[in-house]
Amino acid sequence: MELLLIIIAAALVNNFVLVQFLGLCPFMGASRRVEGAVGMGLATGLVLTTASGLSYLVDRFLLTPFGLEHLRLLGFILVIGAAVQLTELLIRRLSPMLHRVLGLYIPLIASNCAVLGVALLNSAASRSLVAALFYGAGAALGFGIVLAMLGGLRERLEHADVPRPFRGHAIAFVTAGIMSLAFLGFAGFARL
Question: pLDDT tens digits, residue range 4-52?
Fold first, then answer.
């Protein structure tokens, strides 16, 4: 039950994009089409979950025992880079078409602050390995949901009668703000 609450809290209540405002660059950049948004959500989800587990292991078995907590940020950045490389290799081998669609976005996952935020929040909360993995999966689920939602809304907005000053990125930011307000409705659901 606790692991389910961790996933729900990370995906909806403490959504990294709409509540904590982490990962906004890929959120706005990769959400032009639903297909690209779903692919980016899956790739980021794999990196988020993998990096959560690996950063826990690095923190627990390398940094903390040797008193190197001050190197936590650098260690997590290295872990994230390795997780991105692993994800890129997997996507290239398993789905070359998805690799062509995502193209430049895969290396950009390494600079996604949501991935680093998950690792740092897991470390600060002193979660177990399983809880850290579930928190990463919940964050990935929430990231993928909002990315796909904004992708679908942006596709619909292309055919809508939007006033000239609001066309393009302006209406995307207004839409993201309204989505953020909607996600605040989950605030009383679960606390983590």
Answer: 888 988 888 888 888 888 887 777 776 677 877 887 888 888 888 999 9
Q: What is the pLDDT of residue 191?
A: 54
> Which among 16, 1, 3 has a CA at the least distance from the CA of 127?
3
Q: Are 99 and 92 contacting, i.e. CB atoms less than 8 angstroms apart? A: yes
Tracing tokens 């907590």 back to the chain, one arrives at 69
Buried b (16+ CB within 10 A) or exposed e, 80-93: bebbbeebbeebee
Identify whether 162 is part of a domain.
yes
Helical residues (DSSP H) of 24-183, grouped into ranges: 24-29, 34-58, 72-94, 96-102, 105-108, 113-125, 129-157, 169-183
pLDDT digits (tens, 9 = 90+) for 98-125: 787 777 677 777 777 888 999 999 999 9
> Is residue 191, in this structure, part of any structural domain at all?
no
Mean pLDDT computed over every residue of the chain? 86
Residue 192 lies in a domain: no
Would 29 be classed as within a structural domain? yes
pTM of the model: 0.85
For the chain, the residue count is 192
| Domains identified in the chain, total number | 1
C-alpha separations of 3 from 123, 175, 190 in Å? 17, 31, 12
What residue numbers bound the domain in which 10 lies?
A: 2-183
What span, in angstroms and rounded, lies between the C-alpha atoms of 145 and 139?
10
